[in-house]
Amino acid sequence: MSLFKRLKELIIALVTIFSGIVLLLAGDNGQLIVVSIICLYLFFNGMRLLIYYLRMARHMVGGKRILISSIITLDLGLITRQMVSMSNTTILIYLLGIFAFTGVTDILRSMEAKRHGGYWKLKFVNGCIFIIISVALMIAGLFVHDTYFLVCGFSISLFYSAVIRIYTAFRKTAIVYIQ
Hints:
single chain; mainly alpha; globular
């Protein structure tokens, strides 16, 4: 990882920590902020993938897969924007679905990395923690019926993501020398 990428990861981690602190201090507006963060992230990630497809990936093998994922991500971002007026249970189920999907995806990626001899342990632990967060939020949200637990769970996931980004920024990367 280059120095620029390491600095970029650190800056993103610091912004993520700041966002988690703002969410914890937001009070009643926390749910609106959570939905807005998810909406903006999905929308800009979809736009980034679409621009990547238009500039480069349409000439690559698997470029259509990037186009499809960009369209799906954009649609999820727009659907998330419409969730502001929905009930707390609907938002909780949507957030749990995102956490569970992220966890399952990370576990599957770790299994693939293990088959190919790459780094897999951190991805596996990351996936397990996201699944644990989704189960804990489901239990807390369905039995307590308070949106503050949703906001706290999202803040905890932001703090965890920031810690993982800081760890990967300082982790030594393997350098392949060609002789």
